[in-house]
Amino acid sequence: MPNVVILGSGMAGFGAAYRLHAQGLTPVMYDKNAYHGGHTASFRSDSGFLFDVGPHISFTKDSRIQGLFADSVDQQYETVQINLNNYWRGYWPRHPVQLHLHGLPEDVIVKVIADFVEQRQAPDRPVRNYADWLLSSFGRTFAELFPMQYTRKYHLTTADNMTIDWVGPRIYRPSLEEVLRGALSPSSPHIHYITHFRYPSDGGFVSYLKKFVPLGSLKFNHDLLSLDPRTRELRFSNGAVAHYDALVSSVPLPELVRMIHGAPPDVLDAARRLASSTCVLVNVGVDRKDLSEAHMTYFYDEDICFTRLGFPHMLSATNAPPGTGSIQAELYFSDKYKPLTGSPDDWIEPVITDLRRCGLLREEDRILFSSAMLVRYANIIFDLERAAALKTVHGYLDDLRIAYCGRYGDWGYLWTDESFKSGENAAQQVLDRVQL
Description:
The chain is α/β, with parallel strands linked by helices. Helix content is 31%, strand content 19%. It is built from 13 helices and 18 strands. Strand 1 (4-7), helix 1 and strand 2 form a beta-alpha-beta unit. Helix 1 (11-22) packs across helix 13 and helix 3 crosses helix 4. It is globular.
């Protein structure tokens, strides 16, 4: 049997392991961490608060993936109707804002609607970037006050420096009637690409990997140092050396290319031009659970340090001790556009301060737990350099017959189910090449 190696043990890595196992292969899976899961990992504090590595919920409509995840937790999961809202200059409109203008300042509503109507009557203009798409979809006032501002906080660059191939269903383009109804009434309909989601009843999001773990031979604390495609040799920081007949990698492309012996200068340069965000997650446990009606809140104001909040205790009662609540704040940085300086722990107090400023924390609330976590690779930034740079990098890996997968291998905006299927697809490439 061929020796198939998988680099990484996150959702994509186990998608690859699942597909290989179906063909009778048990891959060797190397992970730099002392645990499996990658960004799918979950951690429980000594005080009983559980936090995932970022906001993770499963809202896939793929019945096959739904079944696999449900089986992995022995059908023990919560089904939750999602509630999303926003914070903008002291207001809390429902999400998406374009459908829920009611309650915002009257002059803002009037200008948004006037611009929206004017844009609908204007001749079509070429869409060269995300800024053009936003202006043609919503008019200037709404585009500049909301999505363009959020783009600077979440994607860390400006909308005119981004493409639109990531948008898909993520941003709803309403009709005039929908905008008007949402401006006149507080009871406008909820329209969003997520209506409900599933989450494991116990153990956090990583529990969805439970029954996949035995499908690979896991080797932890193996941080890859170098890859020689000629000899098919892998060297790790712990001194271990391994060889492979076929390789599947979920390692972020800039890291992977840098470790390949003989990578040509143009490929190294292309890999350096691939932009992504780094996330500091600040986790907070509080002595009450009525913190928010929303499972997630988006923050547009640039003087609020966090971009998005999640409330893990609302996903499953087992995520926090009885009677308590939890908050996970996301703060974004980027080597290319907004480098992180200092320590993640430096952001704990600013987050708590801003939680009080916006009213989510009261002065009398007791903080039972707080921590900060660095997520080196968070979201892919779809800037104008991405497409050409990615074509160069992927072409090089294809020539080396290195199958890549996951958000950081495909270098795309992949959700959980898409990451798992990306791993399956990478494994299929291997199966198509090797002799069983």
